[in-house]
Structure formats: C-alpha cells, structure tokens
Design brief:
single chain, alpha/beta, Rossmann fold, 9 helices, 7 strands, 35% helix, elongated
Amino acid sequence: MSTPLVFDRSLVRRRLSRALHQGYADFLLVRAIEDLEERLSTVLREFPLALDVGTPTPAAAEALRRSGRVGMVIRLSQVAEPESILGDEERLPFSGERFDLAVSLLSLHSVNDLPGSLIQIRRALKPDGLFVGAMLGGSTLNELRQSLTQAESEVEGGVSPRVAPFADLRDIGGLLQRAGFALPVTDSDVVRVRYANAFALMRDLRQMGLTNALNDRRRTPLRRATLIRTAEIYAERFGEPDGRIPATFEIVWLSGWTPHESQQKPLRPGSAKVRLADALGVKEGVPKPGKE
C-alpha cells in the first residue's frame, strides 16, 4: 500500500530554503536545542558518531559538538549547506548500524511517511543507540486553523486545507514501537507565543518555512478579504485584554533505543518469585459464598 502524499516535499524544501535565505526565525529551535541538551545531560555515556536528521539549521549539530560527549556529527539537510549532506528524511543515505546517536529537531512533522522515517533512523543506529527527536504536535496553530476555516467559509463559501495535520502525542509512542525502538518515551512542551496580530504570526511562519505545503492545497493564493477576515476572527475569538493574540506551538518529544541484550526486559509470565499478596502486605483468602 502506497503512503498518502500529505505534503509536497519539493515545496517544503523550497519554503525552508527561502526562510534560511531571508533569516530563519529560530525561537522554537533555540528552545528545542536547550531542551535537547538537558535531556542528553541525563544520559551518562559518550557518543562517538552522531547523526542530525533534517534539523533546519546547523545549531543542533553545533550544540552536540560543544557538549564534550559527542564526537563527530554528520548532518543531513534538506537544502544545500556547507558541512552537511544534502538528503531527505524519507530516504536516509546511510548504511545500517553506523551511528551511536541520532537527533532530529522540528523536521519530521513534514514527512509523508513518519513510520518509514523512524524505521530508517533505527536501522542507521548501532545496537543500544539512542534516538531523540522533536516535532510539532497536534495542538500547534489550533487558533490559526480555526480562524482560517471560518474566514474562508464566510468569504469564499467553502474551505480548503491550509494548516498541516500535526501528529498527536498519543499516537507517536506507538509509532516508535512499530519502528522497532525499545524503551520508547514521549512527552510534549506547549509553547504559547504572543503576537500583535495574525499577520505578525504569518510572517514568523514564513520565516520558519511553515507556510502551506500540503499536497492537496488550493493552488491560488488566499484572497485579501479572506486574510483580513481571518485576522478579525482571530482577534475576536482569541484576543487577550491588551489586544495581542496567542499562538500555540506544541513540541512533541520522542526518544527510544535500538534493542540490545543489555537493556531491561519485562519478566516472563509466571516467573515472579514473590506473591502479589505478600508484596502488598495483605492477607490472601477465599471469597465467602455469595460475595463477589
């Protein structure tokens, strides 16, 4: 069965290239890198060879090198940049079991085949290798999505896909297991950014390469009247007392290890050496007749 084409991947790359050329808005990425450094600080081991899968700028790779516990970092980039390998997160150009660590920040939310990308990352890691990723999650830009939908319906008499369907936190842990990762962990960091108006938010999205790249998008630009009405609805529904508007960004974190015999494993059924009643400190008995 073929993978549904949710995103126009060539357009994703062009939008990111434009954002990098014009000045990438990196406030979310800076936050993610700080969180990555904190998460890795709790892992008491060194990583001789690391892979950065598609992080928009070199900043994460630079942070890994500064950590003192990561040796060489190979960076896979969607756009041609110095000291990086041009490639695609959906088709990793690496042989199996090569890396000790793989990271990916704010990139995997725009792939068409997330399970396939996770499988490729797992295969690129050595046994007992670690993957840590961050991607935009389901509540991201919920306010903008609602405002655009209502405005387009009012002004143009119909709606079209405008904001990407980001993955839900509850589903990602299952995807890690399906990809073959052991000890999967997921959590999320909800970031709310305040803007003067919806147009300021849209400028930031353009500078992060996050404007509409859906494969089924309408090919004609939004009408000016629709954009103005979107800003009005946004302010009416979500505006705060000082006149500014909030925008929600959910950063979903996912991590897992490639299986290795040294990792903890659940006990086999029937292998317990202590009875549950003894462990709980209660008296085990037989229910009286007529009692449940």
